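User: I'm curious whether this sequence folds into something compact or stays loose and floppy. Could you predict its structure so I can see for myself?
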Amino acid sequence: MTKDIDVLVLGGAGVDTIVHVPELPLPHADSYMIDSGIRTRAGQTGDFVAVGLTALGLTTHHLDFLGDDPEGDLVRTLHSDRGIVLTAVPQPAGTKRAVNLVGPDGRRLSLYDTSRAHPDDRFPADTLRPLAEASRHIHVSITHPCAHALPVLRDTGATLSTDLHDWDGENPYHEPFALAADVVFLSAAALTDPERTLRDIAGRGRAGIVVATAGAEGAYLLADGTLTHVPPVTPPAPVIDSNGAGDAFAAAFLFGHLSGEPPRRCALYGALAGAHACTVPSTRTDAITRDTLLARATRGPSR
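Assistant: Here's the prediction. I'll summarize afterward.
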């Protein structure tokens, strides 16, 4: 079968409402005056990865549930504007949404509305399988419909990646994703021993590459049994917001991986894209372009 799709992004479509707060954690008060405005825009983890991959020149298709509501229209418009093919499965409960509280230093606290989905949601087999079989690679979000889809995805023979986000290494919900994927991303924020968690994922699952991002401390890369510290990258402009940095890292890493680059080079791409994302206001959904990424990569991690 012809692989017309470079990457199928599964799940992770939705909208975020951005609120800039004076500090995090936010002290209790009856009210706060938000002079920067409160804005709702399309873009959750799957959307950010799809935008990032497309900006890097990869043919990307996004599949997820969406409601017939204004939030769903925002997601559809984002994909249309960026030239990303979107297949939307009707979601009667409505489009996924979240509220992101963003502090002055760019850190965020996300509040997810879990009422917009159901644990028994399934992607239609006659939609999922043909798209998966037409894809070189599939990036899987950690939502319930994607968990149910894992056996079908593995059966197609496509390589898989996933992002476990702030997994603590113990929560059993994340394990099927961690053990089914060939490339695993996660944040080191909740890990007491990143090396142990990375080696556990690789030892018990299929992953040949496991990456734990660590913000300003860089990242940890486990590839071919060797653990490497990936140095941080100096952002090209002041840090405004960390929202989407992990998704940008994953997209750029996958760009390198699917281009045949070695893991260390892929990790540099990821670090550069993540640093770029931290300079983009959370009210926008922008991604580093292929030309900019490759130009910065030639200058090394300090740029």
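Summary: The first strand starts at residue 5 and ends at 10. The two ends are 41 Å apart (CA to CA).
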